[in-house]
Amino acid sequence: MRSGSIRSAVAQTVAPPKALEPIASAGPQLWARALSLDFTRPWPGLLLAVLFVVSRLPWVTLGFGSDPDAWRVAMSARYLLEHAAYLPSRLPGYPLHDIVTAALLWGGWTLTNISTVAIALAGVFCFAMLVKRLGLPAPGLLAVTFAFLPLLWFTSSETLDYSWALTFLLAAYLSLLHRRIALGGLLLGLACGCRVTYLAFALPMTLLIWQDLHPRDVLRFLGLMLVTWFVLFAPVWIRYGLRFWNFYDFRPDWGDFLHALTEGSIGLLPLVVLGICLLLSWRRVAQLPAILRNEPQAAVWTMVALLALFIFVRLPLQTYYLMPAAPFALLLLARLMRRGLLILACVALLLAGFVDVYTTSARGWLAPSAVLHIRPTAGLMLQDYELRRQRLSLVRQVPDLPLPSGAVLTAGFYFPMVAELYHDRLQLALPDGYLEQVGPLTDTASASGPGGITYVWLLSQGDARGLLLDGREIYSLDFARETNKPLEVRIYRLENERFGIH
């Protein structure tokens, strides 16, 4: 009896009570529920919205953006308010966003940045509805990954048009999935009013309509899109006609191009993880041609991603040009990868905002020993935050530079930051005939302030010589990395002064 009682007691100790069995399986169930969370429902959607907005707040108060183009948008908006005339912030023109910014400029960069946060959040919910509609695996994880992708993180909190155009594109695609053709055309037209390059995305959308619906729906879609775009682009047509296409921009070298395509847009560490996950999914990847032939939605995702890549390769000035590819590439990854590998890829993309790697090799990644010099570094999101904070801090010190009376300071891409930050102290001036020229507001404008000091973007040799002959000293704006303080460097001296001839 006694030994039997002992065995019975041991058995009771080792075997878990029946009441604990559901708890043992609660972990995997909870994890599965989290991955499949439906953010289109009220309470999960509210949670995502709160996290999204709170995560952007540190950026909202740090100026219009780390990119000088954001400050150019503010300058264009202010010029529109003060002169009732539209001058594009950049060419070929981004009228819808420039005009919306003018309507919000009274609230400063806090309001204009919050408007971008709001439109980007709408894009996140559009993506969540797309994932649900398409029946892809791990919809909750995909929605969170899209919401907190590093590149989309900091662009969603600055006064630029990228998030606006992307949200309209996602909304247009969602409308087509619900067979709301007219609404889809209108929304894509709004996207084109923000960024003219989005006209290219009419091609995959048209093919989708052509395959699923009547050909006249194609005409309705394209007609509404083109009319909407034409009306929104009216300020550009009126000023420049077709000449708005006649602008020049430089191409970066191959090193900068590859950096923007890898480290600058995704990060090296997540790129490696993505590559490994795709290699391990080689069976499904090998089926991609068949998938594209048989599944129209996958064909649309691929076409949009490739068109965005083509637009970037044509003029790879900004990693932001790759943004339209991000949501559609995520959809394609969800179709090609096994669930476990998709989770790993999404986690790597989310961590990319906080941590990445680089090489300390003097020759960069071209050196055979570059791998031996790999070091951890801050991720894209943290890098942008520090750059934004630092640039605003530095430009705030510009008025304290010890420049002589009547000096000219060539501020380079800091010029729109200086001109807009001190718009109440500086007088903006445009050269004669500028309004008939094709060019953004900042390129040839100047801003004059106390002490007769003039700020410009750049100076040609001829303009510089004329200023020097008028007795004005010319300086170039730079920043000392050691002290994080602005540094003025005198440039463009006359020949007799350079050689000590009086």
How would you describe this protein?
The protein folds into 3 domains: 2-29, no CATH class; 33-351, no CATH class; 398-498, no CATH class. The longest helix is centred in the N-terminal third of the chain and has 27 residues, at 108-134. It is an alpha/beta fold and 502 residues long. The strands form 2 sheets. It has a 6-stranded mixed beta sheet. The protein has a two-stranded antiparallel sheet with strand order 1-2. The chain is built from 26 helices and 8 strands.
- What structural category characterises the helix and strand content? alpha/beta
Rounded to the nearest angstrom, the distance between the terminal CA atoms is 120 Å
Count of helices? 26
**Approximately what portion of the residues adopt beta-strand conformation?**
5-15%
Number of domains: 3
Round the Cα radius of gyration to an integer and report it.
27 Å
Oligomer: single chain
DSSP E strands, number? 8
Mean pLDDT: 86
